[in-house]
Design goal:
Elements: H1 4-15, H2 25-41, H3 46-61, H4 71-86, E1 102-108, H5 114-127, E2 132-137, H6 142-155, E3 159-160, H7 168-182, E4 186-191, H8 199-212, E5 216-222, H9 227-239, E6 244-248, H10 257-266, E7 270-274, E8 282-284, H11 287-294, H12 300-310, H13 313-324, H14 330-340, H15 346-350, H16 358-367, H17 370-381, H18 385-389, H19 396-406, H20 410-439
Parallel strand pairs: 1-4, 1-5, 2-3, 2-4, 5-6, 6-7
Antiparallel strand pairs: 7-8
Helix pairs in contact: 1-2, 2-3, 3-4, 4-11, 5-6, 7-8, 9-10, 14-17, 17-19, 19-20
The protein binds guanosine-5'-diphosphate (GDP).
Length: about 450
Amino acid sequence: AIFENLSERLQAAFKRLRGKGKVTEEDVSEVMREIRVALLEADVSYKVVKDFIKKVKERAVGQEVLASLTPAQQVIKIVHEELIELLGGIQSRLTTAPKPPTVIMLVGLQGAGKTTSAGKLANLLRKQGKKPLLVAADIYRPAAVKQLQVLGEQLQIPVFAMGTSVSAVNIAKGALEYAASHGRDMVIIDTAGRLHINEELMQELQDIKAAIKPHEILLVVDAMTGQTAVEVAETFNAQLGIDGVIMTKLDGDAKGGAALSVRAVTGKPIKFAGMGEKLDALEPFYPDRLASRILGMGDVLSLIEKAQAAFDQAEAEKLQEKMRKAEFTLEDFLNQMQQMKKLGPLENILSMLPGIGGKELKELQKQINPKEMARVEAIILSMTPQERAKPEIIDSSRKKRIARGSGTRVQDVNKLLEQFKQAKAMMKQFAQLEKKMKKKGGIK
Ligand code: GDP
């Protein structure tokens, strides 16, 4: 999974602090040492690691004391914030032209995922209501033109091509005219790639840039190539000037070094992340969400988004309101378990929740299987409305009655009540986190 190794190492480092009422300087030093090793092993640039550790240490030592957090949480909070910063701070959006079309030039080495990303980006922009035009400007490989045309057909998005005997500059110019006369407001140019950076390639890209003055030059790099990706970004930025990065293959990147270094090294943000081979697997890059994920706080925001897409919107809002006010009842719990089934493979959802690792995941999966859900349903249905609303009133004689009524055992009823308590605590955490993130401007 994405950044798995790094995530595991960091979480292990923080385990040290858990449950400590007081964190000594020594504790912090030890944790920082482990984080340092974790980052280096993740293939983050040496200098980036050094600066990162220095910043966190300074803040951790001279920190303002927040009453609401334990010292350990405080350290985690600082690391979290610095990780967000490292990943680029706030989300970097595409620049759009004051007058359409917006012209986006994709550049990068062969195999990085440039052509695929062109298709994915067009697809994403169309979902946002734009009218993209794909442009095949890689004139050295006929296969590249064909590949883009196939993608365009699959997506039903027009592809502008002039074969391989016209210069890339003229193709790009022709594409702009075509876009203007056909009402396409986003032009995505797939340029030539090479196996290695060479002068000829750079010259051609500079020529295209000079001729059409793109609003965005996005460099496509492969996350799996680690520090090489960062070096490629440095060179492209120095020689051509880039506005941002599309980091591909993050789905298979257990380390995370490239994603964590590229912004600090080049000063240019990651704008999109490739998360798979499919044409919908390109996402805007959210530093805050990724940082939370790396630290095992779970990608709460994605979860909420997913949940909202699956749930009936009004229903979801009601539920969130209840969570906020901690009015969540067993009735809602039942409802929610049933809704969870709609969210797709449970594993995906649960792995996004904060503080749920492999072991807890397995346990939860056991609990939320269809047979178990049927049992839970039966138990809740055997409760009176008052009991569902206020489970505290369920004493042992009520438990016996409920067990009898649902054909289960008292221990099953106990187990459910315990699960419910945990779920409720988790909901509360969500609500608080969500509130915090909203305040920080993380949710748009
Ligand atoms: P180009 O030479 O830069 O145009 O690269 P392509 O677009 O042809 O992509 C090269 C390979 O990488 C193809 O097999 C793609 O399916 C794959 N690929 C591209 N982006 C991603 C991604 O985000 N995740 C994964 N897993 N594979 C990707």
